[in-house]
TrEMBL record:
It is an enzyme of class 2 (transferase). Its EC number is 2.3.2.13. The active site is at residues 268, 326, 349. Pfam families: Transglut_C, Transglut_core, Transglut_N. This is protein-glutamine gamma-glutamyltransferase. Keywords: Acyltransferase, Calcium, Metal-binding, Transferase. One of its GO terms (molecular function) is protein-glutamine gamma-glutamyltransferase activity. Ca(2+) binds at residues 389, 391, 439, 444. It catalyses: L-glutaminyl-[protein] + L-lysyl-[protein] = [protein]-L-lysyl-N(6)-5-L-glutamyl-[protein] + NH4(+). SMART domains: TGc (SM00460). Binds 1 Ca(2+) ion per subunit.
Length: 687
């Protein structure tokens, strides 16, 4: 090789097109494993003679750990290792097609070339990613529309609210924007696994199962100064309220800019969305999943205990809880460790709830194993199984005597309307049947018993043979809360308490009612209202009692989750207590986006956002935040003047789209009376 440093043409455009990496905005070659890429370099004489290539990654590359490969020119692509095939050559340059194995370690590689006995010359660096388009890869996804959605799509919809009232909001994953790939590579190099043993850690980076688990730990700040710090207190001083984020980019950039200090604050959907960004960026097909009425079974007995006092107040006793919803991830890869039937979607959960192997990480748990009650299979089966399947026990607790009495138990409460975004469209798909057999069916109970048996729990609590204090008596009355009217922030909340006498003799009932503002985890924050009533129900009679909670009563107490728990504890004379409860999620008022004119690449287009103040008082401190991959850089923040009662505001701003195709604009509006009113709009950008 001549003394001059060889200059390398990485054929960035052509290689990116072949490798589905065109969306990255990088001057560095980014390719996928198990597939050939072409480079041309000059500065070589009769170059195809005895050239040896060296590809290496990690701190101490070696052949033993598969982090170092040396390979010479061959006539065909190697089935096993790395290979180089000459495409064409001239007197001064040579084009080489380089292939990596299907199970290569992913990450940033250094590539050099050596001729004869001279010392190796550096050709530069490239990044190697997982390849879901390639049938030999552990993450191979045969359906290309699913590859487009779960790897290449930068917009997502996350479902929230509660099972009676599912709401949704958009999220900008932004995995191809700016510096996100470099930040994702940095996350891997800051994990506890890497710090303890960098050489072994890097050698495991061929395995999506390993990386999924490591990254589920790194996305939360617990243990390892990871990306996002969780906060479920209802008080978010010193950071951003978890409901205010609209994308992962701002979070990942902040983490890097601060010198890798955890970003404040996240709750479950933030952890899940950031993990989606990181895994899609690295090439592992990933989506967010929302589970409604999600159990957090802290003691591993597949049941959740909830305690109430005589007034119907929900007590913070015990570590178990039921969340209105919880968001986790599914990633797609094969499970060589478990066998073919357990391949496909795997559950990962980056929200720090329980330790696994001494740190806050969860998964991958095979979704098929969860459905079949195979809770002993790696990883964290019992916790995930309980999230969708635990039985609920409701107790009355007397703090004076310490006595607890079972009010009732329910086996159909947990794990409802498990939801994810549809492929290629902005709709909800229900995947509950992929997690469990039909609720209440014999098969579902059989699987539940199978799981308990595997965990050695048959004797501790068997729903078919309860202990004395767990004998469930038949109630004399039944009750429910019905919603009467709209559920909107700024409006009065109108409910009906419906009580029905199930017996053929009259019943006297004393009812204690409370309403609390809560977080989406149902943690109580402020008491809003309480009332009591006495009623006599004639035989088989049904009566309705209107409950009205006025906006001024709840306005100051409401959390940004906009959730209220209403309970009525009914003390039936000479009978057992009946607990009636309902978790209510209020909707924000609407906000409207209009794109004025056609959106064209590199041309200005005007967008108008309109909001009408729905309440009888002025709202102030109004801010509009806008983001959207390929529509604008970073986040646009606009201050809006105060709005009088019923006044409409209209705000215009300009976008300059940078890419063709369907793009999503995300808007978040907040002011002193309304937190985080979110909407999104699809903008079809043309040439």
């Amino acid at each position: 090789i001549a003394a001059t440093q060889p200059s390398t043409d990485w054929h960035l455009k052509e290689n990116a097109r072949e490798h589905h990496t065109s969306k990255f905005s990088s001057e560095e070659l980014i390719v996928r494993r198990g597939q050939a890429f072409t480079i041309t370099f000059n500065g070589a004489e009769r170059p195809e003679q005895n050239l040896i290539f060296i590809a290496e990654t990690g701190p101490k590359p070696s052949k033993a750990t598969k982090t170092l490969a040396t390979f010479d020119i061959s006539s065909t692509v190697s089935k096993e290792g790395w290979s180089a095939v000459v495409q064409s050559s001239s007197s001064s340059s040579v084009s080489i097609s380089i292939s990596s194995p299907h199970n290569a370690v992913i990450g940033r590689y250094r590539l050099s070339v050596q001729s004869g006995s001279s010392s190796p010359q550096s050709l530069g660096t490239f990044v190697l990613l997982f390849n879901p388009w390639s049938s030999g890869d552990d993450v191979f996804m045969p359906n290309t529309a699913e590859c487009e959605e779960y790897v290449l799509e930068e917009f997502g919809i996350i479902f929230a609210g509660n099972k009676n009232h599912i709401s949704s909001f958009g999220w900008n994953f932004g995995q191809f924007q700016g510096d996100i790939l470099n930040i994702c590579l940095a996350i891997m190099d800051r994990s506890l696994y890497y710090r303890q043993d960098p050489i072994t850690d890097v050698s495991h980076r061929h395995d999506p199962r390993y990386l999924g688990r490591v990254l589920s730990a790194m996305v939360n700040a617990n243990d390892d100064q990871g990306v996002v710090l969780g906060n479920w207190s209802g008080k978010y001083e010193g950071g951003k309220n978890p409901t205010s984020w609209t994308g992962s980019g701002e979070i990942l950039q902040s983490w890097k800019k601060s010198g890798f200090k955890p970003v404040k604050y996240g709750q479950c959907w933030v952890f899940a969305a950031v993990l989606t960004t990181v895994l899609r960026c690295l090439g592992i097909p990933t989506r967010t999943i929302t589970n409604f009425s999600s159990a957090h079974d802290a003691d591993g007995n597949l049941r959740v205990d909830e305690f109430y006092d005589a007034d119907g107040n929900h007590l913070e006793r015990g570590a178990d809880s039921v969340w209105n919803f919880h968001v986790w991830n599914e990633s797609w890869f094969i499970r060589n460790d478990l066998g073919p039937s357990y391949s496909g979607w795997q559950v990962l959960d980056a929200t720090p709830q329980e330790e696994s192997g001494g740190i806050y990480q969860c998964g991958p748990a095979s979704r098929h194993a969860i459905k079949e009650g195979e809770v002993e299979l790696d990883y964290d089966g019992p916790f995930v199984f309980a999230e969708v399947n635990a039985d609920c026990m409701y107790w009355n607790y007397d703090s004076a005597t310490g006595k607890k009495t079972l009010i009732f138990s329910k086996s159909t409460e947990i794990g409802a309307s498990i939801s994810t975004k549809a492929v290629g469209r902005d709709a909800r798909v229900d995947v509950t049947r992929d997690y469990k057999y039909e609720e209440g069916s014999a098969k579902e109970r059989e699987i539940f018993k199978k799981a308990r048996k595997k965990l050695g729990l048959e004797d501790k609590f068997d729903p078919t043979a309860p202990k004395q204090e767990e004998v469930e008596q038949k109630p004399d009355i039944s009750g429910k809360f019905k919603v009467a009217g709209s559920l909107e922030v700024g409006k009065d909340l109108n409910l009906l308490l419906v009580l029905e006498n199930l017996q053929s003799d009259a019943k006297t009932v004393n009812v204690n009612m409370t309403a609390w503002s809560t977080l989406y985890t149902r943690r109580r924050v402020n008491q809003i209202w309480k009332d009591s009533l006495s009623v006599t129900l004639a035989p088989k009679e049904e009566k309705q009692f209107p409950v009205k909670i006025k906006y001024p009563e709840y306005q100051q107490q409401l959390t940004t989750d906009k959730t209220i728990q209403v309970t009525a504890l009914c003390h039936v004379k000479d009978g057992i207590q009946v607990l009636v409860k309902r978790n209510i999620t209020l909707d924000n008022p609407a906000i409207d986006i209009q794109v004025l004119g056609e959106a064209k690449v590199n041309k200005e287009v005007v967008v108008e956002v309109a909001f009408t103040n729905p309440i009888n008082e002025e709202v102030k401190d109004c801010v509009l935040q806008v983001e959207g991959s390929d529509l604008l850089q970073g986040i646009l923040e606009l201050r809006i003047p105060p709005l009088k009662a019923s006044e409409k505001s209209s705000t215009k701003f300009k976008l300059i789209p940078s890419e063709v195709g369907p793009k999503h604009l995300l808007v978040n509006f907040f002011c002193d009376k309304f937190a985080d009113i979110k909407t999104f709009k699809m903008v079809n950008v043309i040439n």
